[in-house]
Design goal:
- The chain is α/β, with parallel strands linked by helices.
- The chain is built from 8 helices and 10 strands.
- The strands form 2 sheets. Strands 5-4-6-7-8-9-10 form a 7-stranded mixed sheet.
- Strand 2 and strand 3 form a beta hairpin.
- Helix 5 packs antiparallel against helix 6.
- It is elongated.
């Protein structure tokens, strides 16, 4: 059986055999009497180097100084117990630890990702999803809002601001179990919003409310989102920034396929298109609140404020 992906056997001169795990940890191995080169050949299925001693079945000396035994080499007492060959115990120990085995399927196998938006972003995203084993399909906004299924995700990519109300219907996807991911650009910044994978997760409406609450220029930002501004003419996504944005979205899809812990579902990221710097910002859902009561009948309307007096000459200053 081959070594698992990321597992490497290391023959240490004068130190026996070691294994490097996929996360980079080194462990020393008790080879149960099997010479390190022969143990490597046994575990990889490749012949030992010329001149290396062969495996020694049936020999079971104790572990050397400072080694970590692969398995407990002492059989349980009893009349029927008998020594087990060293190579067999070695291969069994590696299999039990998960260091041997067939290559697992790609992480998005069996998942469908519906993609829509601007091709500068959807093209690299589609390639990355397929490389990870996922199925992709291109959908319209109307189709995206109707998708259903806990193995389906919708990813909407915009190389520009979000028009008012565009994502309102898609915000209901997590309530039906469909994952909902999105990105858009405002000026020189691309925003990669957290994946919403179920009821109660962060939607695009929640992100807007949190961003308004976090800035003193909330009136100006709300007016910009409502369309009361000149057209946003860039800088647009470059090939590099589009690939990075698609990679970050793919990372969120991989997290979704693996269970999407809360830290991923509460993370808003901002990408500066000028230097490709990525910053993360925690964001929480906004709980529903009761609407404000309607004014009582017969209430006196507020008196309009007087017109302001002429002020100083126009200037540009922070909001």
């Amino acid at each position: 059986m081959p070594l698992a992906p990321g597992v490497v056997l290391v023959t240490v001169p004068g130190g026996g055999l070691a294994v490097r795990t996929p996360d980079g940890t080194f462990l020393r191995v008790d080879t149960a009497g099997t010479e390190p080169h022969a143990a490597t050949a046994l575990l990889t299925g490749r012949p030992a180097p010329d001149g290396a001693p062969a495996a020694a079945p049936g020999t079971r000396p104790g572990p050397g100084p400072g080694t970590r035994p692969a398995v407990d080499s002492s059989p349980e007492p009893g009349p029927e117990s008998a020594p087990e060959p060293g190579p067999d115990r070695l291969t069994a120990a590696f299999a039990e630890a998960g260091y041997t085995g067939d290559t697992p399927p790609p992480p998005l196998t069996g998942r469908t990702v519906a993609v829509l938006g601007d091709p500068v972003l959807t093209a690299p995203l589609t390639r990355f999803v397929r490389d990870a084993g996922g199925l992709t399909r291109t959908v319209t906004p109307e189709e995206a809002a109707t998708l259903d299924g806990d193995r389906t995700a919708v990813v909407w990519c915009l190389d520009g601001p979000v028009p008012p109300g565009l994502w309102d219907d898609a915000d209901r996807l997590p309530d039906r179990g469909t994952a909902w991911l999105r990105t858009h650009r405002e000026g020189a910044h691309a925003w990669i919003e957290p994946p919403a994978t179920g009821p109660g997760d962060v939607t695009s409406a929640h992100v807007r409310l949190r961003r308004l609450a976090a800035t003193p220029a909330h009136r100006e930002l709300a007016a910009l989102w409502a369309g009361h501004g000149t057209s946003d003419n860039g800088p647009r996504h470059s090939e590099a920034s589009a690939a990075l944005t698609a990679a970050l979205l793919t990372a969120d899809l991989l997290a979704w396929a693996a269970g999407a812990p809360p830290a991923v579902r509460r993370r808003l990221r901002r990408l500066d298109l000028r230097d490709l710097a990525v910053t993360g910002h925690p964001v929480l859902p906004v709980p529903d609140v009761a609407p404000l009561p309607a004014p009582a009948s017969g209430a006196v309307p507020p008196t309009p404020a007087p017109a302001p007096a002429p002020g100083p000459a126009p200037s540009v200053r922070p909001a």
